[in-house]
Design a protein that fits this description.
287 residues; alpha/beta; 8-stranded mixed β-sheet; 11 helices; 8 strands; 47% helix; binds acetoacetyl-coenzyme A; oxidoreductase; 3-OHacyl-CoA_DH_NAD-bd; 3HC_DH_C; 6PGD_dom2
C-alpha cells in the first residue's frame, strides 16, 4: 500500500476534476487549486454530478459519495499545498503555463519527498522537471477521460526522474487509485495519443474533404469496429482545443504531417466550437 495520503490537484477542468474525484473516492485528503471561485464552483458541480452518476450506476453508496465530497477542498491559494505528498498538475495543455505551475509548486511544497506529477498528454516531462529544483521527483502520470471510468494511467519518467519516484508513483496509482499502468518514454503523445491523435485527425480530414458525414464516420467505427464512440464524438469529448494543442505538440516534436492539425479543426477552435463542454463541436449537445 502507498504511504501517500495528502493529494493536491492543480486545475479542475475535465481531467483535474476527474483526478480529484478518484483520489477522494480512494479515501485521500484532496485540495484542488483553481484560478477563481467560479471555476472551482463549476468543477464542484462536475464532481457532484459524476458521483451522482456513480451512485445511480450502483458503483458507490450515497454515504461514500458524501464522504468523497467531504474530502475535497478548493482553494485559490496554491500556498496551501505546503503539506501535499503527491501533486498532480492538470492545467491547460500549454508549456508556458505548465512550467510556471511547476516552478511555483517547487517553492510552495515543503514535503521533501513530494512527487510532482503532470497529467500532460504531450509536453515533455523533462521540461517540466527542469522548471523545478528537483527534477528527480517530477513524473508524467497521464489519466484518461472520463477519469472515474477509464482504467488506464500512463507513467512517464523523464531522463532525470528518480527510480524511487517512479516506484512510489506506480504503487500509488495501482494500489490506492486502483488503476492499471503502462509505461512510456518521454516522447510527445506517449503511447496512447501517438496512436489516437493521427486517427482522430484522419477522421476530421475525412469530414473536411466531404468524403463522408460526421454521423457516418462515427457510426462506421462504432458499428464496424465496436469502438464505444466514433472519432468525431471522441474529439468532442476530449475537447477540440485540447486535441489541437496535443496535435501541435506532437507536430513540434516529430514534424510528421500526420500530426498536423487540419484547418477545419483550427477554424472550429477559433469559433469556440470546442465539443461537448461548449455545447457544440462535430455534434450538438444539449446544455
Ligand atoms: C486526450 C488524452 O490525453 C487522453 C484521453 O482522455 S483520450 C480519451 C479516452 N476516452 C475514450 O476513448 C472514451 C471512449 N468512450 C467510452 O469509453 C464510453 O463511451 C463512455 C465511458 C464515455 C460512456 O459510455 P456509456 O456506456 O455511454 O456510459 P455509461 O454506461 O453511463 O458508463 C459506462 C460504465 O461506466 C460507469 N460509470 C459511468 N460514470 C461513472 C462514474 N462517475 N463513476 C463510476 N462509474 C461510472 C457506468 O456505470 C458503466 O459501468 P458498467 O459498464 O459496469 O455498466
Amino acid at each position: 500500500m502507498s504511504d501517500i495520503q495528502r493529494v493536491g490537484v492543480v486545475g479542475s477542468g475535465l481531467m483535474g476534476s476527474g483526478i480529484a474525484e478518484v483520489s477522494a473516492r480512494a479515501g485521500l485528503d484532496v485540495i484542488v487549486a483553481e484560478v477563481n471561485a467560479s471555476a472551482a464552483e463549476a468543477a464542484q458541480g462536475r464532481i457532484a454530478s459524476s458521483l451522482a452518476r456513480g451512485v445511480k450506476a450502483g458503483k458507490l453508496s450515497e454515504a461514500d459519495r458524501d464522504a468523497a465530497l467531504g474530502r475535497i477542498r478548493f482553494t485559490t491559494d496554491i500556498g496551501e499545498f505546503a503539506d501535499r505528498q503527491f501533486v498532480v498538475e492538470a492545467v491547460a495543455e500549454n508549456e508556458q503555463v505548465k512550467t510556471e505551475v511547476f516552478a511555483t509548486l517547487d517553492k510552495v511544497v515543503k514535503d521533501e519527498d513530494a512527487i510532482f506529477a503532470s497529467n500532460t498528454s504531450s509536453i515533455p516531462i523533462m521540461k517540466l522537471g527542469m522548471a523545478t529544483g528537483r527534477p528527480e521527483q517530477v513524473i508524467g502520470v497521464h489519466f484518461f477521460n472520463p477519469v472515474p471510468v477509464l482504467k488506464l494511467v500512463e507513467i512517464v519518467p523523464s531522463l532525470l526522474t528518480g527510480s524511487t519516484t517512479q516506484v512510489r508513483a506506480e504503487a500509488f496509482v495501482r494500489a490506492t487509485l486502483g488503476k492499471e499502468v503502462i509505461r512510456s518514454q518521454d516522447r510527445a503523445g506517449f503511447v496512447v495519443n501517438a496512436l489516437l491523435i493521427p486517427y482522430l485527425l484522419s477522421a476530421i480530414r475525412m469530414l473536411e474533404s466531404g468524403f463522408a458525414s460526421a454521423d457516418d464516420i462515427d457510426n462506421g467505427m462504432v458499428l464496424g469496429c465496436a469502438h464505444p464512440m466514433g472519432p468525431l464524438r471522441l474529439t468532442d469529448l476530449i475537447g477540440l482545443d485540447t486535441t489541437k494543442a496535443i496535435a501541435e505538440s506532437m507536430y513540434d516534436e516529430f514534424k510528421e504531417p500526420l500530426y498536423s492539425p487540419p484547418p477545419l479543426l483550427l477554424r472550429m477552435v477559433d469559433a469556440g466550437l470546442l465539443g461537448k463542454k461548449s455545447g457544440r463541436g462535430f455534434h450538438n449537445y444539449a446544455k
